[in-house]
Specification:
Length: 403
């Protein structure tokens, strides 16, 4: 009797153990994308791939081969093959991409959606002359030369941060008035590589003097000293700082990629938040494959590893993929949209956004604006440009909300 009880207990234990093993195996297969398929009286497990459809903002419709499937954020099982994925939300420009789904691999479609009708908010009200953004994108310096509000004329700075634009935050702050013989609207401004100082250069017709402004100290007539005799030394020091910043960026890149990049300035090399690097090719050359070990879910978008001098490219440091953005003479002042993998640049007098792999090119703003003044905003929801409300009006800085 005891033996039968022991055998029964052992059988139960073995059954539970077998159930756990089989259950775990089935759960593993399910997680890897395998799905049951009933054909007649036969049951088979078919391998599928996974499409993780996410978007900012959330709640967009997901279409696969023009068929509505689900809403973001969701994961979809698809048989291996090529698909056209569209992500659409009312009030936003559509996003779409051709993807190649592979079995047991998760493809991430992270759609950054842009508003179809951007919202413009003025940052300045009395005009903005010669605005320049700091290398770290943390501040903008400019001058005001208003004929109707002369009391407001002088030198201004805007501290950029991720606080929402309002009447009391992120507003211009006057750091110097116009002094006798000093009209700041006549100066050309250059930030130091560390963004802590500004060189104000007055051309010969405006006196030919140079002032070095320390942004951590008050600017007044007592601190304004013509540094023209030391100008060459200051520029040499800044060039050395620039070289150090470039080297720091180069150290993050694969060894074989470094000689192919332009190192004329730190702006020639810039990183996104997720380890993608925008760079300007310094020479015609072939970019070797497998600079790093690519992941199983490597992007299947068309690459361009035949580099042409003077073209912008994006290399993905996690994916070992390389994408052509365009020639330097048509892709003006490109920069990463903060907190995303989107690039913004000026092309044919149009402010344009694209995904890092040169898909989903959209127009954000067109018309009358200064193509040299298109700056990122810290929270990634807007950019800044210099434009006027109507023909003949003074140009002001505007925040253009696009996300």
């Amino acid at each position: 009797m005891g033996n039968r009880s022991e055998r029964k207990s052992l059988l139960i234990i073995l059954s539970v153990f077998l159930f756990v093993i089989v259950g775990t195996y089935l759960v593993t297969l399910f997680a890897r994308g395998y799905r049951p398929n009933f054909q007649g009286n036969n049951l088979t497990l078919n391998a599928t791939g996974l499409l993780s459809a996410t978007s900012k903002p959330k709640g967009a419709s997901v279409y696969v081969n023009d068929k509505l499937i689900t809403a973001t954020d969701d994961t979809i099982n698809l048989a291996p093959g090529s698909y056209l994925v569209k992500i659409i939300k009312d009030g936003y420009l559509p996003w779409q991409k051709s993807v190649n789904i592979k079995k047991e691999i998760v493809f991430q479609s992270d759609a950054q959606l842009f508003r179809s009708a951007p919202d413009l908010s003025p940052i300045t009200l009395n005009g903005a002359v010669n605005p320049v953004i700091s290398p770290d994108n943390s501040k903008i310096i400019f001058s005001v030369a208003s004929a109707s509000a002369t009391a407001n004329n002088g030198l201004y700075i805007i501290e950029l941060n991720d606080i929402l634009l309002s009447l009391t935050k992120n507003t211009p702050r006057q750091i110097a008035v116009n002094y006798p013989g000093i009209d700041w609207s006549k100066a050309v401004f250059t930030f130091s590589p560390d963004s802590r100082q500004v060189l104000a250069n007055f051309p010969p017709r405006s006196g030919g003097v140079n002032y070095l402004l320390n942004l951590s100290s008050p600017v007044n007539q007592q601190t304004l000293i013509d540094i023209t005799p030391r100008l060459s030394l200051i520029k040499a020091d800044w060039k050395n700082q620039e070289s150090q910043l470039v080297q720091i960026k180069l150290d993050r890149l694969p060894q074989n990629l470094r000689p192919l990049l332009s190192t004329d300035s730190a702006k020639s090399i810039s990183f996104s938040v997720d380890d993608k690097v925008l760079y300007l090719a310094a020479t015609d050359s072939a970019l070797p494959t497998n600079l790093i070990s690519p992941p199983p879910a490597q992007s299947t978008q068309t690459q361009d590893r035949q580099l042409k001098k003077g073209n912008y490219y994006v290399y993905d440091l996690k994916d070992d993929t390389n994408f052509l953005i365009g020639p330097q003479n048509s892709v003006l002042n490109p920069f990463w949209m903060p907190n995303s993998s989107n690039l913004i640049f000026v092309k044919n007098q149009i402010i344009t956004a694209i995904d890092y792999d040169n898909t989903n090119q959209v127009t954000l703003f067109a018309g009358n604006f200064n193509p040299d003044v298109v700056f990122p905003w810290a929270d990634g929801t807007k950019f800044i440009t210099l434009t006027s409300a109507y023909t003949g009006a003074a140009q002001n800085l505007y925040a253009v909300t696009v996300r």
